[in-house]
Task: structure prediction
Amino acid sequence: NDDDQNLHQQILEVLLEKVEQDPFPSVTMLNMIEEILQPQDVPRYAALLLDKIRADEFPSLDMLKRAQSLA
Result:
């Protein structure tokens, strides 16, 4: 359904924007993203995680594992 897909994209967009803005996004928010992630969304989410990892001198093991799981 187009309405469901549109809502999915809007929710995902809001969550991705929040994670982008937060230097240390919550596990809950990342879990929510991963629950609704569609195959076409994976490259953007992976890039976001990799940006967070690059920006952090000591990236969390959780963040590293999340990025690795998308490979």
In short: The radius of gyration is 12 Å. The first helix runs from residue 2 to 21. The chain has a mean pLDDT of 94. The CA atoms of residues 12 and 42 lie 11 Å apart.
